[in-house]
Amino acid sequence: MYIINQLTALFLSLLFTLGSYAPESFTIANVPEKPADSVRIVSFNVRCKDDTFGSVKGRSQLITAALEQYAPDSFGVQEATAEWIEILTEKLPEYGCVSQMRDGKASSEASAVFYLKDKYNLLDSGTIWLSDTPDEFASKFTLSFCPRIATWATLQNKETGEIYTHINTHLDHVLESVRVKQINVLKVKIEELKSKGYPVVCTGDFNTKEGADAYNEMKPCLNDTKYLAKNSDDGATFINYGKNIFETRPIDFVFVSDGVKVENYKIIDEKIGDMYLSDHAAICADVIF
Question: I need a labelling partner for 81 at 20 to 30 A (CA). Which of 90, 168, 170, 236 fits?
């Protein structure tokens, strides 16, 4: 059965890649209605490469279809290779993009922030490396598997003048002690952004679970939207294309600064057709500043 499922997924991925399917005709059943005056934030680890569960080109059609249906004001993506950045900017032309590769390797990844460019002016943006030297390109902590970054965009609503900053990150996937160090660097930047007087939202794949040291280190700085939301969801976000059936806790988060209200928190773990979008489920949070 496992081999059959693998072959089925590979076949469907090929069909998507060749255009035999029209993924735009597929819909996600339970997209929450966006409340009036809210800002929709999405975090999405898009999976950097092809694997037996789907090619980047095949899955990108599903992911862009899902993003079109959710229509976030801004979204952060993790594992965004140059190929992913090109696909997302081409397929979602309504979004501007703030992106920086974490190192100079051909396989490098960004933790990019996308925003509705007709709705928002980009006031400020930048990237830090989660290391002892945050402004040094490709720097990292000694035990970090690879350089890790945080990229931010400060956005102003063209109509209302409302401003917020969206910062997006992806922490080390090996050592919790390294993730704690990275969180402490991230917190310094977040506190600097908060000091400007604007709300801050932070999205990312934190590779840590609720109650772990890195998660607890983040709590005094920002609040987990899962526990603020009027309508909340529960479950794992690393789903491994539906194989991770025993995990119940998220490792991807949307955090917000004090005073931000949260209407909806939704884990986007549905399939489109017969395919999962990524090995991670995305997260959607509707917030009111």
Answer: 236
- Written in H, E and C, the secondary structure of the chain is CHHHHHHHHHHHHHHHHHCCCCHHHCCCCCCCCCCCCCEEEEEEECCCCCECCECHHHHHHHHHHHHHHHCCCEEEEECECHHHHHHHHHHCCCEEEECCECCCCCCCCECCEEEECCCEEEEEEEEEECCCCCCCCCCCCCCCCCCCEEEEEEEEECCCCCEEEEEEEECCCCCHHHHHHHHHHHHHHHHHHHCCCCCEEEEEECCCCCCCHHHHHHCCCCEEHHHHCCECCCCCCECCCCCCCCCCCCCEEEEECCCCEEEEEEEECCEECCEECCCECEEEEEEEC
d(CA 123, CA 59): 32
Please provide the size of the chain in residues.
289
Task: Please state the domain extents for the chain.
Answer: 2-288
Q: What is the pLDDT of residue 218?
A: 97
For residue 210, report the phi and psi dihedrals to the nearest 5 degrees: -55, 130
Q: Which parts of the chain register pLDDT below 70? A: 1-26
Determine the pLDDT at residue 17. 45
Residue 16's pLDDT is what?
46
Task: Evaluate if pTM is beyond 0.85.
Answer: yes
Nearest to 150 by CA among 81, 114, 203: 203
Q: What is the domain class of 2-288 according to CATH?
A: alpha beta
For position 55, what pLDDT does the model report? 82
